[in-house]
UniProtKB/TrEMBL annotation:
NCBIfam families for the chain: transpos_IS4_1
Domain Transposase IS4-like as annotated: residue spans: 118-366
Protein name in the entry: IS4 family transposase
Superkingdom of the organism of origin: Bacteria
DNA-binding as UniProt keyword: yes
Swiss-Prot/TrEMBL keywords: DNA recombination, DNA-binding, Membrane, Transmembrane, Transmembrane helix, Transposition
Species assigned in the record: Gelidibacter pelagius
Family designation: Belongs to the transposase 11 family.
Length: 437
């Protein structure tokens, strides 16, 4: 196959991207490589691990064979196990991951909706069930059937730059509210962060506002709302009565009064009634939903400190849809990249589990996201969006050829990874990319 250097650009640079992270100097610093590696480097171990994703089963022998396809040299599974079993390996791979956050991929999203902000971050979490032997390290949900194990990945995606800015590996029982504080030191003046209800903490909103950054979140129904002028408590269902939408300045909270906009947009009767039916089915036996709460379920309600001259109420609804993108990324990880396939059910411990997760997250940041961004930049000129889910499947199926730089991946993406053209509904990426409602 004749290679086209322009088209293969995101593939040919994968080893250069690993080189940018200076893996060998870091390995020597952590005493992981005291002399020149004769059979394989740390980078080869990572690339071999990435190739395992398409195999659907894990063993150190299989991993060693993948490395041999890269290096042309043989390495035993036992020899590989000794290298990966060293206690410094998790510190090393985590450090490489954090170095990858400095990668520059160029502009990803030039939407007029976000032109007012320097950076637009979207934060969310996803879960991965693990063998029960890891329940002490990654405790899962409480179960009457015995101990369960579940890991949680906290991810923060920079929507304008098209790259992840932060990852954290926690357990299922580590709540999102605790993690809401972690990114405050990174958020700068003029930045925007979009989160769902799990991260709803009034103190965090207050700190973001005082730092002259911006937030956008769903509203939490049990929070007290006060008129911003009079300070009087508001009856929300009375405020919303006979109004198509509501956009007012309020103060939230009983003691800590956080000033923000309160924006409510009515839902269709069908969606509103379904939300009410679901609330009645799922409620705790000891609770009884109030009439006001059931009325509020007929609205999409948001809070933000973005001023009205920057966003109208419909703009807020549109901007919140950016969260769809990170949800789509999570779906592609689980369903198409199948990143849990290489976590064995036996002979697994905390160190190996953490290595597997951090290695795959590094692959997402250095390989999958750059390929997607490059392909989308080429294709979006025609007003077409690429499915990250379909792209992830193509990457998984061709991982060995991608790592060994033997495939024109963009040609396959342009043909097989685009959304189908449909007149009856708009897909999520069209909504995000082209501001189509």
């Amino acid at each position: 196959m004749q290679r086209n250097n322009t088209q293969l650009q995101p593939v040919l640079k994968i080893k250069q991207k690993l080189g940018f992270l200076k893996p060998m100097s870091l390995a020597k610093k952590l005493n992981l490589s005291k002399r020149e590696d004769r059979k394989c480097t740390i980078a080869d171990i990572l690339l071999g691990h990435w190739q395992l994703i398409s195999k659907g089963s894990f063993s150190f022998d299989n991993w060693a064979m993948q490395i041999s396809t890269i290096t042309g040299r043989t390495i035993s599974g036992q020899g590989l196990w000794k290298r990966v079993a060293r206690p410094e390996i998790v510190t090393y791979i985590r450090a490489l991951l954090h170095r990858s956050f400095a990668q520059k991929y160029g502009s990803f999203m030039d939407s007029a909706l976000f032109c007012h902000f320097d950076n637009v971050y979207v934060q969310d979490a996803t879960h991965f069930s693990l063998p029960s032997c890891l329940s002490d390290v990654f405790p899962g949900s409480y179960s009457k059937r015995g101990d369960t194990a579940c890991a949680k990945i906290q991810a923060i995606f920079n929507f304008k730059k098209g790259r992840f800015s932060d990852f954290a590996l926690d357990s299922f029982r580590d709540n999102d509210q605790k993690d809401a504080y972690r990114f405050l030191g990174t958020l700068m003046e003029g930045d925007l962060i979009i989160r769902d209800l799990g991260y709803f903490v009034l103190d965090v909103f207050d700190r973001i506002d005082k730092g002259q950054a911006y937030f956008l979140s769903r509203f939490k129904y049990n929070i007290l709302v006060h008129d911003a002028v009079t300070g009087e408590g508001l009856k929300l269902d009375a405020c919303l009565k006979d109004k198509r939408e509501l956009d007012i300045e309020v103060h939230l909270g009983r003691e800590k009064r956080v000033k923000c906009r309160f924006v409510a947009i009515p839902l269709s009767d069908g969606i509103a009634n379904e939300r009410r039916r679901k609330a009645k089915r799922n409620r705790n036996k000891k609770s009884n939903h109030s009439k006001e709460y059931l009325n509020l379920l007929g609205y999409s309600i948001y809070i933000t400190n973005v001023p009205k001259e920057v966003w109208t109420a419909p703009n807020i609804v549109q901007a919140y849809k950016a969260r769809w993108y990170i949800e789509i990324l999570f779906k592609s990880w689980k369903g198409n990249l199948r990143i849990k396939n290489d976590i064995p059910q036996r002979y697994i411990n905390r160190q190996r589990a953490e290595f597997f997760f951090y290695s795959v997250l590094l692959m997402v940041n250095l390989l999958v996201i750059p390929i997607f961004n490059k392909a989308q930049q080429i294709i979006e000129k025609a007003g077409i969006a690429i499915s990250i889910i379909k792209l992830s499947e193509i990457v998984r199926e061709n991982m060995q050829m991608i790592v060994n730089e033997k495939i024109n991946i963009l040609e396959q993406i342009k043909y097989y990874a685009m959304y189908e053209s449909r007149k009856d509904r708009i897909n999520a990426m069209e909504t995000i990319y082209f501001n189509i409602s």
